[in-house]
């Protein structure tokens, strides 16, 4: 299984630290060329490999850690996303009316035809996400939601490998709304740092 993080700002780097802590290789990419990402990647660990966007989208599991408005540009990199699992770590302040009254992940998934789409890792602040999730004798919770149960199980397995305790909230329009922006209000579980 190959992994990539697209977006190498504070959230992308925090997620890369989780991979590095667990000795799991991950490609990181952004609009900047790989050599521009190299200093931060090397500071995080040797298994964090800078690549191009085209290289990143070849991974089996891709974490989207870009600004929400950038997801469409990423979606255009492949005509067919079949066989890919996309983890949506994005948040948006866009009013729900501008998202066709859909949860943000269901709206974003339209740009990735054929992909299995899972909301996850979006509810923790970057500094919290960057820290070791094994704390206080337990594991920091990461909330997941998707309309694809098999994809949720796959991402839950990855979350466990990264040291988190995954909690499946169900489908996008059910429990998923607890960790997504609705209009100008955040879901009630956004930025909750819970342990299991």
UniProtKB/TrEMBL annotation:
Listed InterPro entries: NAD(P)-bd_dom_sf, P5C_Rdtase_cat_N, STEAP_metalloreductase
Stretches assigned to the Pyrroline-5-carboxylate reductase catalytic N-terminal domain: 3-91
Gene Ontology BP annotations: copper ion import
Classification via SUPFAM superfamilies: NAD(P)-binding Rossmann-fold domains (SSF51735)
Keywords: Oxidoreductase
Gene3D superfamilies listed in its UniProt record: NAD(P)-binding Rossmann-like Domain
Keyword Manganese: no
Entry GO terms, CC: plasma membrane
Molecular function GO labels: cupric reductase (NADH) activity; ferric-chelate reductase (NADPH) activity
Name the UniProt record assigns to this protein: NADP oxidoreductase coenzyme
The organism of origin for this protein: Rhodanobacter lindaniclasticus
């Amino acid at each position: 299984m190959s992994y990539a993080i697209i977006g190498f700002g504070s959230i992308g780097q925090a997620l890369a630290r989780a991979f590095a802590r667990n000795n799991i290789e991950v490609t990181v990419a952004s609009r900047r060329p790989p050599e521009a990402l190299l200093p931060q990647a090397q500071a995080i660990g040797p298994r964090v490999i800078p690549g191009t966007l085209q290289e990143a989208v070849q991974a089996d599991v891709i974490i989207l850690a870009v600004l929400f408005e950038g997801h469409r540009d990423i979606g255009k990199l492949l005509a067919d996303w079949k066989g890919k699992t996309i983890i949506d770590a994005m948040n948006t302040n866009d009013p729900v009316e501008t998202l066709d009254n859909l949860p943000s992940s269901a709206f974003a998934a339209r740009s990735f035809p054929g992909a299995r789409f899972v909301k996850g890792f979006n509810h923790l602040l970057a500094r919290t996400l960057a820290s070791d999730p094994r704390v206080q004798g337990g594991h920091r919770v990461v909330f997941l939601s998707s309309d694809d149960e098999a994809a949720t199980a796959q991402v839950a397995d990855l979350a466990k490998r990264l040291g988190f305790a995954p909690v499946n909230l169900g489908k996008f329009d059910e429990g998923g709304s607890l960790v997504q922006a609705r209009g100008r209000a955040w879901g009630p579980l956004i930025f909750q740092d819970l342990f299991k």
